[in-house]
Amino acid sequence: MAQSPPDSQTAPRENILASEPVTVYQRAHLSIQNVIQQVETFPVPLQTELQNQLGSLSSLSLKLNQGIFQIATFGFVSRGKSAVLNALFDEPIFPVGPLNGETQWPRSVRWSPVVAQGLSTLQIELIDTPGLDEIEGQGRAHMAQEIAKAADLILFITAGPPTALELDSLKALRQSGRPLLIVVNKADLYPDLDATGVYERLAEPLQKVLTPEDILLTSAAPAPVEIRVEWPDGRTTHDWETPRANIESLRSTLLQLIQKEGRTLLVLNTLLQVQRVERDIAEHVQTYEAPSGKACIGQYARLKAALIAVCPLLFLDAAIGLLADLLLIGTLVKLYRLPTHRHQVNQLWGQISLSFASLILVEMSTPTLSSWVGHISLGWLPWVGTGLLQGGVSLYGAKRVGQQTQAYLFNGYSWGPLGSSTLIQNIIKQLQPQMVLYRLRQELSDQLT
Q1: For the chain, does the N or the C end have fewer beta carbons within 10 angstroms?
Q2: pTM higher than the cut 0.85
Q3: Cα 163 from Cα 142, distance rounded (Å)
Q4: Is residue 259 a contact partner of residue 117, using CB atoms and an 8 Å limit?
């Protein structure tokens, strides 16, 4: 499990969700800028490799500064995804038709509903996606996951009760860790259907993060109904009339959710994406510096082993071992150019302590071993054997310290004072039980490990 950074390393934990929303925006923006500035200290070839990551960070910074709140719709073909979005706009923005798969690629449009309190600083973007059963194989899964991870809110649209395949797709989308609403379209065709009935069909993992209030019944394009027409001259005829779209429950739920949690959702999702980029950058640094890191660890380990093997004094061996481990850590920190802090520092000190204790144990056993070997050996052979044993233990200990230092740097890259993981953890701690995000707090915490 991830450890919390020390209080001295983190920003003050005031109520960042309600009292000072501007502050959390600023911190998220500074987090992005810190990563960009850090990359600028890397060697030029490594900076060239990270151009895509820098572009992603710039896009996230722009989205945050402009307050773009993205809502992505998913569903199978002919479920009425585009019709639902058109009903929200109250005009035919997205193409619909009798053919399956009218939407061939993701398309986004800004939605400007009647401005309510809390929405004036956000720009709402609705994203229509191709049917999940239109794109085959891994392409479908990759497309869905990438869009879902970029969106701040997910709408999963069905036509009536969800099928088994739709339930499987819902579980897959849940892996993105984003809040989700289920929109049951064409509800006019199922008069006995209600949100509770749909909720009971969901698997237990979905029920843990959803409530019946997150299941909305709509009729974006109701079926025509036959009406009776009575004329002034006494004639009676029958005609067909198309009722108005009924999506008020969806509209009001979206506006209320965005008003109450929109800023938090936007900042949190941005930081989650920054965290992904930071981890990607750390992997590139690890790969790029792997030969130098391996050589550095090897050199310090061999030097430490050689000095301890020839030194006859226990206290001096202990000092040499500890000093060599600390110098190795400092050299690796300079080599990788990654920020240091106290995330996972216990594991690092634990490895140093283990290396130190192993050496002391071998040193204290040396007289006994030498005496025992001296009864069956000649001259200086016992001292050579114990020296090699001490050197071997020192060599192994130094390599383990070096490897733990690398893990400390790479795993802790996003845990600085303004690191994405630190800010995400602060937001999670401030979530309130009535918030949609509160039900996702464990899932969000797991992403910090």
Answers
A1: N
A2: no
A3: 22
A4: yes
| CA 381/CA 362 separation, integer angstroms | 17
What are the structure tokens assigned to 425, written together? 């953890």
pLDDT in tens, 174-217: 878 889 999 999 888 888 899 999 999 898 888 888 999 999 99
Across 29-49, average pLDDT: 93
Write the DSSP symbol of residue 447: T
With 70 as the cut, is the pLDDT of residue 135 above it?
no
d(CA 306, CA 395): 9
Among residues 389, 398, 430, the alpha carbon closest in space to that of 296 is found at: 398
Enter the DSSP assignment of 94. S
149 within 8 A of 178, measured Cβ to Cβ: yes
| DSSP per-residue codes, 341-377 | -STTHHHHHHHHHHHHHHHHHHHHHHHHHHHHHHTTS
CB 445 within 8 A of CB 428: yes
N-to-C CA span, the chain:
5
Measured distance CA(265)–CA(68) in Å, rounded: 11
Please tell me the distance from the alpha carbon of residue 61 to that of residue 32, in angstroms, as a whole number. Answer: 7
In sequence order, the 6+-apart residues with CB closer than 8 A to the CB of 134 are: 77, 100, 101, 140
Bridge partners of residue 156, in order along the sequence: 74, 182
Sorted by sequence, the CB contacts under 8 Å of residue 106 that are 6+ apart come out as 127, 128, 129, 130, 143, 147
- The candidate with the shortest Cα–Cα distance to 92, out of 101, 82, 81, 79, is 82
The 3-state secondary structure of 384-419 reads HHHHHHHHHHHHHHHHHHHHHHHHHHHHCCCCCCCC
As beta bridge partners, residue 125 has 70, 110
Instruction: Supply the pLDDT for residue 5.
Output: 38
Taking alpha carbons only, the member of 89, 91, 131 closest to residue 110 is: 89
Close Cβ partners of 339 (under 8 Å, ≥ 6 residues apart): 38, 413, 416, 419
**Whether the predicted pLDDT of 239 surpasses 80:** no
